[in-house]
Amino acid sequence: MLFCGPSGSGKTTIVHHLMQQFPMMRFSVSATTREKRPNEEHGKDYYFLSVDEFKAKIQNDEFLEWEEVYKDRFYGT
Fold this sequence. Notes:
By secondary structure, this protein is of the alpha+beta class.
């Protein structure tokens, strides 16, 4: 199952609710170069990486998929 939508649209809230209802579901933690928000945890909500760390993972073919959404703002799985 894949949930996608604009930033701040509530995707994570919906997914966490579904995971409570269906415990066999698992959450895939993505990586990003954006700043961590106050309520987020590294390794739980995202893997927060520097641009250089993210680019090294691209070079090492460590992502299933990735995208540079804005200049130096990367997201990947």
